[in-house]
Amino acid sequence: MKNKHDGSERESAPRAKVGAFTPSEIAAVTTKLRLDPFRRASGLLLLAALAVLIGAHAQPNPEKIGAGPEKPHAERISKSYKLGAYYFGYWGPHFPTDQLRHYEQKFGKSADWWAGVRDLRDSSDVGGGLYQGNFRHLKPALGYYDLSNPRVIEQHIRQAIRYGLSFFNFYFFWDSALGSEKYGDGTSSFLIAENRDAIDFMISIVADAADPIPRQSFDAVADHLVTAYIWRSNYLTVPGGRPLVEILHNQGLGNGSAEDTDAFLRRLREIVRKRLGVNPFFIVSTSAQKFSNVLEADGYTCSDHYWYPEGLKTLVKSYESYIRSIDAYFDLMNRVVGDSSFFYCISSGHDERPRLYLNPGANSKEQIERLRTMLPYYLERSPARFAAALRRVKARMDSRASRWGNYLMIYAWNEWNEGGIIEPDEQNGEAYLAAIAEVFADHRQR
User: Fold this and answer.
1) Which of 25, 64, 78, 402 could form a disulfide with 21 if both were Cys (CB 3.0 to 4.6 A apart)?
2) pLDDT digit string (tens) for 260-295?
3) How many domains in the chain?
4) Confidence (pLDDT) at 363
């Protein structure tokens, strides 16, 4: 891998607030605010008022939002660890409407973004016996929420930092037809959350066949990432003030080749350096095509190593088998990309069966059965098994084989329809978060 030059620490900038406006529009406003002190003072007051009004329309249960201590567990975790979780921001009005239309046509009833997840939780015999099992965990402790309400993600921030998480990793999708970002309600609400400064955030780019980023959009996407996100003072950085950006999927980034991924990252690096005076740090996920051939990568990570090293030999696996595969997986990655540049990862689970409700190809029992047999998932996930997996990954992190061994990417905060869930749920409460705090606690403080 070629040498990269560290950039200098950039100055903190005032944060934009979004609501009824798109992040691009707000970014343009805040650019003016930074240049005009009078506009800045009056403008931010107006935007703050808008944020309050926007958040008033869909309040979650106020009894579950209680003030409580912010960091009782986090204080026991060594500050050398940087623990973060992937965050699915589409539990709201921006959930894909085509999937909801299919659900309404198939089942003859109205649907919201929790369709499928709610159905599976409320039935132990879904699809004629295809889904037998216990799915009672498939309901957030906050209830089936609407992320367009900033009060929800404010509570998520409280929950996360209370147990030692220091960042959220938001997915980024691009609408090539409209030439703009497919905004997740969670991302937009995060930018106006009252406690957004309490936690850092980063962006993971998802460019696949369904949501491609064509070459002609490279400049627009790179410019948008800087204008909407990377300039913010709570954007996650590695030492040297270098903002961290992940390529999660690149199948739709240009033609999906390593060369086109390099072309995009070069352009993004140029724009970040020009606008912010700092050299970004790019990590490429092992889920990306030809990930080890991306020359612009500064490091590598993984969101869910379900596929390795066993691959697709066995689709339905025990979570115990996942725990046993962790060391073999990281050994494999060491041989492929070198341990020294790896950001470690862990999966709290994987199960895409809730999504079958929204799949246009699942219109009959036979079609559901065919699709079900093609889906990978883990059985027997539990907080105790997650803790066992965490201990194995932490031992690897503590070996300091990687320069970035103190970073951990956790799959996921709220992937309710894909099985990666550490957000408190009605069955397990905060047990998954408590497992993180317990495993990473400095027990010498007791």
Assistant:
1) 25
2) 999 999 999 999 999 999 999 999 998 898 899 999
3) 1
4) 67
Strand partners of residue 378: 317
Q: What are phi and psi of 46, to 5 degrees?
A: -65, -45
The CA-based dihedral angle spanning residues 98, 99, 101, 105, taken in that order and rounded to the nearest 10 degrees: 140
Domain that holds residue 86: 23-445
Q: What is the largest CA-CA distance in the chain?
A: 65
Helix (H, G, I), strand (E, B) or coil at 283: strand
Question: Token pair for residue 302?
Answer: 């993984």
**Within-domain flag for 44:** yes
Nearest residue to 253 via CA among 300, 301, 285? 285
Residues 62, 151 contacting (CB under 8 angstroms): no
Asked whether residue 304 is domain-assigned, the answer is: yes
| Cα separation, 57 vs 101, whole angstroms | 24
Q: What is the pLDDT of residue 315?
A: 67
**Gap between the Cα atoms of 265 and 228, Å rounded:** 17
CA–CA gap between residue 84 and residue 237 (Å, rounded): 13
**How confident is the model at residue 72, as a pLDDT?**
65
**Backbone phi, psi, residue 232, to 5°:** -70, 145
For residue 123, the model assigns a pLDDT of 72
Residue holding tokens 């990793």? 169
pLDDT in tens, 308-356: 545 545 666 788 888 988 998 888 888 888 877 889 999 999 888 888 7
Task: Give the DSSP H/E element, type plus range, for residue 319.
Answer: helix 319-337
In sign, the C-alpha dihedral spanning 350, 356, 362, 364 is: positive
The residue type at 38: F
Q: Does residue 3 lie within any of the structural domains?
A: no
Cα three-residue angle 170-412-173, rounded to 5 degrees: 30
Q: What is the pLDDT of residue 445?
A: 57
DSSP assignment letter at 165? -
- The verdict on residue 18 lying in a domain is no
Q: Cis bond leading into 354, ω under 30°?
A: no
Pairing of strands 174-175, 180-181: antiparallel
Query: Residue 214 sits in a domain of what CATH number?
Result: 3.20.20.80
Side-chain-side CA neighbours of residue 7 (13 Å): 21
- Going through 167-241 in order, the beta strands assigned E by DSSP cover 167-172, 174-175, 180-181, 200-206, 237-238
